[in-house]
Structure formats: structure tokens, C-alpha cells
Task: structure prediction
Amino acid sequence: MGWVEAIGVLYHLNNLRLGAALGSTERAGHDDQLQRAVQAMASRMNTEMVMAEMGQIGLSEPALKVLTSMKNHWDGLTVFVHHPWVPMDNNAAERDIRTPVIGRKNFYGSSSLWSGQLAVTMYSLFMTAKLWSLNPRTWLTAYLQACAERAGQAPSDVSAFLPWAMDAKQLAAMRAFPAGAAQYTVGQHGSQSFDTS
Result:
């Protein structure tokens, strides 16, 4: 099995582990399989490095460079094994920053410090809303309404707008779409659609 296939097996085993209920024997079994697969990969990496150094196998320079990098960063690459809540890669983060990066390119930056700071703040707020599955329009409308009620000033206590400080009822309200509002959704692979029903 090649390295790419072996990494694919790790993704598969990790997905099985994450799909099983916490504390279940099924999850424990998948966790054990994953740990054994990671240990086997570490052994293979070390063996191939030693054999390459001794001239017993011929590795191309790029392949040796990849193995060396993998060995040097092994602890970071395998954090997900003992901390299942940590993703195996940063693909989701890279997808999430794509919109601001393309936006910045399309509108040629912000042209002033304050507008750049506003853009960064808004992107941060919208990503927080996305992580908590909040409707950004509902959340922002509620926040701006609170500002309007205070004569244009920010609320002195913003905890009512922090998703981690909300109770289940508040979270449900912030996840809802206003009646008659168009629902904008982004699909798994970046496809975009509006639903006005």
C-alpha cells in the first residue's frame, strides 16, 4: 500500500471512530484500530528512513524530503489520535478563509484602515455564526436592534449575543430565518442557492 492509500485508511478509521457514540464499545474498537494504524505508519516511516540512509532502498529526493518532514512533524500530524475533536487536517479552515481572500482580491483591499478592520470583524462574526449554525441575518438584526434601542450605542452586556452564553431557546431563535426572508445557503462544494419559499 502506498503512502497516499495509507493516509486514506487513517481518514476512514477516524471517520468510523467519530461516527460511533461516545463511550461505546464500537468507538473504542475503532479507536484501537486507528491507534494501531498510526503506530504501523510510524514504524514504516522510521524503517524507510533508516533503509534510505543506509542505501538499502532508493528514494527520490522529494520522497525523502516528505518522509523527513513527516518525521519532524509527527507529533503535530497525529494530534487527532488522542484528541478526537481536533480535525485531521485544516481543509475546513482553508475553505472558510477562501471567501474573504477572494473578496479582498475582487474589491482591491479596503483602501482604509477602518474599513479593513470592519471587514475583519464582520468576517470573524460571520464565521462564529457559521460555527454555531446561527443565521447571520437573524443574529445581526437582533444585535443592531439592540444598538438602535440604545441610541446607536453597543449594548453594555453583549453576552446575550454570544452563542456559547445562549441557552437552547436563544440558540433556536438565532438559528431561525425571519418569516418571508430569502434563505441563502452554501453547499458542501461551494455551490450557492437562494430559497424564497
